[in-house]
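Colleagues,

Please find the record for the three-part complex below.
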Amino acid sequence: MDEKKKTETGFGSDALKDPRRIVFITKKTSAKVKGDVGRQAMSYPKLILREAIVLEILTILMVVVALFWDAPLEQLANPLLTPNPAKAPWYFLGLQELLHYFPPIVAGVLIPGLVIVALIVIPYFHVNVEGAPLWANSSLRRLGMFSVVVVVLLIFFGIYQAWTIFIPTLVMAGVAGTTYFLPGQGGRFGTYLRARPLSWWIMTWFIIVAIILTEIGTHFRGPGWSWVWPWR
Amino acid sequence: MTSWENTIERLRRTPVWQSLFRRGPARTNRTRSVAVFGNIFLHLLPVKVRDASLRVRATYYLGSITFFLFVILTVTGVLLMLYYHPAVPEAYQDMKDLRFVVSSGVFLRNLHRLAAQAMVVFVFWHMFHVFYRGGYKPPRQFNWVVGVGLLLLTLFLSYTGYLLPWDQLAFWAITVGTNIISYVPILGQPMRFLLLGGHGIGENALLRFYVLHIVILPLFAIILIAVHFWRVQKDGGITLREEHGRKEKD
Amino acid sequence: MSEPKNPTVSSSLEKPEDKEGLSRRDFFNEIAAGALGVAGLGAFVVSVRYLSPNVLFEPPTNFRIGPPSDYQVNSVTYLANQEVYIVRTSDGLFAQSAICTHLGCITQWKPELEMIACPCHGSKFRKDGSVEHGPAPRPLQHFAVRMMPDGELMVDLLELVKPTQILKV
């Protein structure tokens, strides 16, 4: 292509030979810097050194504990004899506790499946990204929806007599509802709670129920999955 | 002290050292940058980090600890493999051998078991911490999903490892767990059959869990860990407390 | 595809195309995609076939349990190796699975309670296998029992029967 001619006339008429560059400037964009990132440090050596120290401390702690604590080993597996009670690994005991209350399709498939899906979709919901306080607009509609969901959940847990889930749910919903009806009270803790978004309430509820169920499954269940007190 | 530094300095000038690192001592910001992006492992990390993200309170090193536990598990796991047969009842006898015959065998098994439990704890803790910091928000949505994948892989890894000692605890925990799968509509029974390689938990199931535990799941975990680290860097570093407009006092 | 506003510019950026039907390039693209799909599906099916063992070394599914006189009236006998209960009532005799229908734990006969209890999640079954309470969704599975010509009984684990079917002895 004749380079000289191009600079003189700008563009040739054949778009295949001289593709045009067009810049679109849409609304809400500009070339301005997004924000000040603040002071920065070089990863090497500052970050690497800290990570190395963490690795060292962690390894030392693990080795020390491993020297004094023995991994459990029971009898040789016997398919003919179920130990009583037969417990899953501790992190699945919450799930096993659910299996005690609900039919397996609900406790074993539906609930864990929903938890995983819920975790994955968290970042793709506008309400979670925005993170506005739960009662930001003091909207009655939201309070209505909230109450309906809570009542449905409570009825569901009540039907299956899952009181160890029913009570924490009731308490959590009660606290969340109280922050709606008592604006400006409760001191710093009240102010803190009122600023929490919906996702915070759901996640906190999930963590509390999960911890309670795991704890019950670990220490409060004996032969035949009956209730026992760990100190007896 | 000075003789030590002299030795290092002389070592640095040898052709072998220079072929290994292809850079001078990391005394300037340029060579410090090269130290990170010129290294295949370190290049997953950013060259620079914000001062604020170096504070302990920014991360509590939860993600790092989870990763280092994975490293400890890999090292101890490979060593344990040298004395383990995935067969019935040799698997159980190997556990007894590790305890009573192999030097440091019981220590390695303890360390492996302990680190496995700790990794489950820390992976959850890390996730909850990231959640409360708003670390799932744009532009970090995808890395949150990768993290959920790593959580599931951690649980599967721990679960498949649970069967390997072939004791009563292992056998019945896996029996209960795999029977849950059979409640999945339509596909449940075939999936359980494929996972166990039979109708019940036997030699085939042990071998399958072993292969999952030592090859397939760690491989996926390593890939996802690499993506996870890479995306932390590409998505603008770790989430700081101030980032999402929730200015709170420390 | 919508018609561009300035056809001379935008269409000249694309390759000349036969508007009537598939271009040669589209045709080959579709053939290639189809071939990949078929190959992928085939690989999946073959992999699943490979992963399902064809020969299993599992316990036999039918076995002899001796003459009916071995089992007293109103007794529940647990056969450990086959994981079945042989229950004899005044009506007759039947065989039912000892595997809990909830999550596959081995249940235990509790004579003092006249109940079959599961240690894992607390399910309880009556003597006839029906669910007394607990998370178990179905009654215990009953298996066919037959009288052999030599007077011994035989249980077939592959022949599932209704709880009402009882062998009169």
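Chain C touches chain A at residues 8-9, 12-13, 80-81, 83, 102-103, 105-108, 117-122, 135, 137 (CB under 8 Å).

Comments are welcome before we finalize the supplementary table.
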